## 1
Amino acid sequence: MSAPADELLRRIPFFRRLSPELRARVSAVARLKSHDRGDLIFSEGDPSDAFMTIVSGRVKVFKSTPAGKEIILEIFGAGDPLGAVAVYEKAPFMASALALEPTEVLRIDQAVFFRLLEEDPAFVRGLLSGLTIRLVELTRRLAELSGARVEVRFARLFLKLCDQIGTSDRGGVFVPMPLSRQELADLTGTTIETAIRIMSRWQKEDVLHTEKDGFVVIVRRALDEAAAS
């Protein structure tokens, strides 16, 4: 593991507003760790021994039911904290995190993390800002899952992925994230049969194509209309 440069820290929302002096202190104690696709970054029940922020890549956060079913809670990307609440509460991780692609994570040991919180109010403000953003996102997602129709939820999911990681390619907007039908069902709070039905229809209508390494949104306008309905 290596130490992060100041330029890298300034790209991460949690550290962006810190003074150069405080970022230098963070750089001295933080370490970068690389994970290959499919690596477990931590498992549900593991001790939360470090504060982590994604520098690059995508991470799936999920829980496993007693029956062995995997429920995806969220997909996080660059700049997002991982397990911050568990670290702050000194509690075991409440879910598991798996790298969906080559991913780099910034880590600060828990004891050092708390020392930084105690020594500088700016660090506390950064933490509260980051956690507030995640809380707003979770609240929005829970409202969608409980109220919106399934097709609306699918459309909003793909629009979010287009905005976050989409690139103009392959005759549309390419989303380089291969998700199974079960993973799509988990992310939208529905069944795999419904996920298959919606994705098959969009494929036939040339709205969205599934490829082995992700998805291509051909007609974004159709998703915009579905998301607003």
## 2
Amino acid sequence: MLSPMMWLGLVALGVLAVTSIRRIPEGQVYTLRRFGGHTRVMHSGMHLMLPFLERVAHKISLTGANVPVDGLVAADQRYRGIVYFQVLDPERADRVIDRVDGLLQERTRSLFADAALPDAFDSRRQWLKQSLNSDVRERGLLVTRVDLNAVG
């Protein structure tokens, strides 16, 4: 016969075991933070983590995402754009993933205001994509496509 303290210990051990196991879905990466800022990355599959010492900082999708960009003006014509991007290096992207939308929107607007913007529409999209990639590749991101549409 188990005493109440032994039951409590078994229940606590069971809760600890259940909270230690994480299943990461296919196409996602979790970054974990420990006290003191140490970060580790868990790729898809079953993993053990240290409850109470580690916490999930970010759930990063590797399948891609997009960011709408408004307020683009070139040669007295207004444009609306969509920047499609993908995370290539989750460890480097973890540092900017919280602000990636603002980062891409701000950089696209500043590039679009550049006087060296190509005149041809397809060349403009390609130039924007290459310019954005030169800025974000070091942060673990890849811009896969830039769509532009003229507004009114």
## 3
Amino acid sequence: MPSPPVLVEIKNVGSHSATLSWSEGFHGGSDQTVYYEISSDDTYTTLTTVQMNTIAISETISIRNTTVSNLVEDTFYYIRLYSTNSLGRSEMTDISTFTTTGIALSQFLFYII
């Protein structure tokens, strides 16, 4: 069975997207596919599962990045990752959390008449 991804980090959080970085765990000698699950509640009732990358065992990239998009501004998110391959499915990573930003007031012009 593959190991879950490691070194999970959320960066560059904006109002509608964030960058997710990770490194693949032990693959057991078989190509693996990495997924993330994201939800805006801790019970995962609004769960979305997204396939990110299929990683060949011959690849040597240590840190991978993907953009998580179509997020709602000013919203708290829960995200976790797992891997699958011909040997099965890994356990989930620990849950990571982040909050998207709101639209800055400086983006608007107000006129007082």
